[in-house]
Write a structure and sequence with these properties.
Blueprint: H1 8-17, H2 49-52, H3 59-66, H4 73-92
């Protein structure tokens, strides 16, 4: 089973009921600390939030609340890119 985008009817609904512009992205990075996922799942619902909020760089928070010792360099690079995408989208729309 692969992750797939929403059907065109869903995108069409949001496009016509709002500003006319619809944006979507697919996050498919497998975070280094996420274990137990089947091999065909790279990222699932809300897994992108670790990167959006920069948790690979929040050592105190992750050790205290998530019981996660460390993210790898690929996770940190992905977080930098995702934050840049979000900042660019906020700036330019």
């Amino acid at each position: 089973m692969k992750n797939s985008p929403p059907p065109p009817s869903v995108l069409s609904f949001f496009r016509t009921s709002g500003s006319g512009r619809t944006y979507m992205y697919k996050f498919s990075h497998r975070q280094s600390f996420l274990t137990g996922y089947p091999p065909y799942i790279n990222g699932s619902h809300i897994d992108d939030l670790y990167s959006v909020f920069g948790e690979p760089f929040m050592e105190f928070f992750r050790e205290r609340f998530l019981d996660i010792q460390d993210f790898d360099e690929d996770d940190k690079e992905t977080s930098d890119k995702i934050q840049a995408y979000y900042a660019n989208f906020a700036w330019t729309g």
